[in-house]
Amino acid sequence: MHLRSVAIALAFLVTTVSASSAQVPPVTFTVIGTVQDQTGGVLAGAQVVLVGNEGTPQRRATADGTGAFRFDAVAAGAWELRASYEGFEATTVRLRVGPKPPGRQKIVLAIGNVKEEVTVGNQTGVNTASGQNRDAVSIDQKMLADLPAFDRNYLDTVSRLLDPGAVATDGATLVVDGMEARKVGVSASAIQQIKINQDPYAAEFARPGGGRIEVVTKSGADAYHGEANFTFRDGHLDAKNAFAETKAPEQKRIFEGSFGGPLHGRTSFLVSVNREEQDLQAIVNAVVPTGEVHVNVPTPQRVLEISGTITHPIGVKHIMTLRTTLTRESSQHDGVGGTSLPEVGSNADDHEEQVIFGLQTMVTSKLINQFRLLLGQDHQSTSSVSPRPKIIVNDAFTGGGGQSDAYETEHHFTVNETLTWSAGRHVVKSGFAIPDWSRRGYDDRSNFGGTFSFATLDLYAAGRPYSFTQQQGDGRLVFMQKVVGAFAQDEVTVRRNLSVALGVRYDWLSFYGDSNNVVPRASFAWAPGKKPGTVIRGGIGIFNDRAGARPISDVLHSQQGRLLRYVLVDPGYPDPTGGTPIAGEPTSLVELSPDFNIPYGLQFSLGIERLIAKGTTLAVSYIGSRGFDVFRSIDVNAPPPPFYQARIDPTHGVVRQIQSNGKLVSHSLQVTLRGKVTRFFSGSAQYVLSRAMNDTNGINAMPPNNYDLSREWGRAGNDQRHRFDLMGSLKPGPWFTLGVALSVRSGRPYDLTLGRDVYNTGYANARPPGVGRNSLNGPGFARLDLKCAREFPLKKGADEGSKLTLAAEAFNVLNTVNYTSYIGNMSSPFFGTAVSAQPPRRFQLSLAFEF
Fold first, then answer.
1. Domain ranges of the chain
2. Which residues make beta-bridge pairs with 489?
């Protein structure tokens, strides 16, 4: 009886305790913290993921305008906080919650660079996020400072890694702080990061990753930081150019720096200045009737760039930025060098001012809006050194006057609006952009004195030009240039080891009349197997091209009929100083083809990325592309076969029709090694095996025979079978850092021509019978640049304190003669040889002070 009573009592006690426990909610805690960069600057909009001990993401949060994040009702246990922000290394912080509330978490993100390690499970080096492809190059401020950079031009240093086939007709796309731009707008020391080929198929951008350069600039911080640099070059330290009879007495001085910090309360500022004084010389290598000409011509240039940025948080959900930039550039004797004599030079001045307003808004913890507006104006003037008519003897010499007088103005604005929503497995981005909405003014006075063109020196001596071109009338033109784009993209984490990004983009350009430009983009990344370390990545997308403003101005000048263009074939040469009478001669026109379309390209790729050591990855990728409706020009009024004598419409001369019916095919295999390759060396190495074929040399190129384009299909002008680039830094010890940049490339093709106007079009570009375009192959290229730098801390034991850095840089260390401008004109005295070469070995000294 006693034992039964005890058992009943125990059962009642257990039941009561269990019931009480079921009614008491589990103890939870609130996790709060901030995300900031290494300088203390907050990273509003940073993504923070709360991950359980099994490695599965539980919840996501977005840092607000002060960089703060918050997770409520977090159960006790072991957790991880994974923070990421575009342009920075993803960071993981381990967190123990309970039995008491955790303290405020502080997550510091380092700027991403070529040594970047991002987390996937318990492995580092590869990631299935669409923006973490390992065949990209992302270089932070420290790596930029270690690399040899001629004249501190970081963009020029990294642009060698661009994919020539992905660059648009009007050049590579520059994206600064998420918005398309023409210039970086800040000095070199205010650049925080440069990326190429990041997320190649992102619908947010008009061009593929290999055709754009993304720049992240510095912002103000909660502590004062600054940097001042003096860079110096002198020709006495350099080798002699291969085509110079004497070493040119050159010198260049660069004063550059930035300074920023708190201004008032939470407001911060950043100021940057760049002043360049360049006293360099161009090298002329020409043949005139009296013999060879080898002369050095001074080409002085002055540059001043000033920018100021203010960052001001408004409450906890908004961050406002305001930046102003001012640029002044002047140069003399532009266009001189090679076969162009000093007399054809021109002087130029460029004044540009910009104001950029940015507003980042945390709508909710999962929704962030970024808005940027740029207002700018630009004034450019060009004046010829001599007003005399220009004389061109093909690939022998160009003399007379420059005939390049012009004045251009531009008032423009740029808008960029992006909305990012992050929830669960989805990261959705959408927005629109106006990369260019401008009022452009042209006062074209070029070639008002006329240009005589001769096939050979003998025909020049005999006074028998094959063409005379001239412009007359009113060259004033004002028009609006408008470019608009919109996009939407959803990046879905299908599984922990699989992500898919699907997007669509629309581009519209005014004037061209082609509005059907909706294109899809798609990419995926898959990490097979249970043990991460390998990622298979692929994508496909269509990318629209752009033509720029110059073709528009050419067509509008013709339509308005105020600027008259003349092309006279076999005009005679009565008076080389007075020109040739053109009264009553037929005018030439520029027009668009009736079936004109905006060119577009299809790019597709498949690759594999493998972690081969801690922090070191190897990526092997195949990239294919097809170009459709590619730009070309045709003279639709050219003299027809078989005799090529009289033009079809005798009331007009050349009728240049801009068409979009060219095509392009390219294939490339890329092998990229990046990371901490050895104990002492960090960087990236990339080898590219490629082939590119097309049937046009560009929007301004005219074929020799306008009625037979069968010989136009051939190697693209930028086709290089082999390309190898190595960039990185070697740190054998605390004494110095050695930066390395090595580029080795095979030759590009060029045309074999007769040098005569066989088809009576005014262009002496006819080829021998049966010879196609770009049938000759130019020489290869090799250049090794080195930078040796030594840091001297000014405060003992302070890693991030004030320091002084001395550096010596050598460019083209091996003094390799890299010939350029090979001549395929069989009528030229330089046939089969080059008329210029890239610079020889040059030295650069610099002194930097940081605090």
1. 27-110, 209-334+349-402+409-573+585-850
2. 429, 503
Integer CA distances (angstroms), 557 to 409, 761, 836, in order: 16, 21, 35
Tens of pLDDT, residues 558-570: 888 889 999 999 8
User: What is the fold of 27-110?
Assistant: Immunoglobulin-like (2.60.40)
* Residue linked to tokens 């004046």: 383
Q: Which two tokens stand for residue 812?
A: 């083209």
Enter the DSSP assignment of 786.
E
Burial 383-394 (b: 16+ CB within 10 A, else e): ebbbebbbbbbb
Q: How far apart are CA 523 and CA 490, in angstroms?
A: 11
> Is the bond leading into 642 cis (omega within 30 degrees of zero)?
yes
- Give 415 or 574, the one with higher predicted confidence: 415
Assigned CATH for 209-334+349-402+409-573+585-850: 2.40.170.20
pTM of the model: 0.83
At position 432, the amino acid (one-letter code) is F
**Tokens standing for 714?**
């051939």
Could you tell me how far CA 96 lies from the centroid of its own chain? 44
Say how far apart CA 384 and CA 332 lie, in whole Å.
10
**Secondary element (H or E) of residue 655:** strand 652-676
Amino acid type, 721: R
Taking CA atoms, 722 is separated from 134, 196, 677, 718, 751, in Å, by: 20, 19, 23, 12, 20
Torsion of CA 651, 653, 657, 661, to 10 degrees: 110
* pLDDT tens per residue, range 595-630: 888 899 999 999 999 988 877 889 999 999 999 999
- Alpha-carbon Rg for the chain, nearest whole angstrom, is 31
Strands 225-234, 390-393: pairing kind: unpaired
Between strands 842-850 and 803-811, the pairing is antiparallel
Does 209-334+349-402+409-573+585-850 match 27-110 at the fold level? no
The tokens for 367 are 């929704």
User: 666, 664, 665, 657: which is closest to 699 by C-alpha?
Assistant: 657
CA distance linking residue 387 with residue 263, whole number of Å: 53
Digit-coded pLDDT (tens) for 762-814:
999 999 999 999 999 999 999 999 999 999 988 765 445 688 999 999 999 99
Q: Are 42 and 108 in contact (CB under 8 A)?
A: no
Do 119 and 128 form a contact (C-beta atoms < 8 A)?
no
In whole angstroms, give the CA distance from residue 255 to residue 795.
25
Rounded to the nearest 5 percent, the helix, strand and coil shares of the chain are 10, 55, 35
Other residues' Cβ atoms within 10 Å of the Cβ of residue 690: 21
Instruction: Establish whether the linkage from the previous residue to 732 is cis, with ω within 30° of 0.
Output: no
Structure tokens that stand for 185 in this block: 């707008």
Q: Is the peptide bond before 99 cis (omega within 30 degrees of 0)?
A: yes
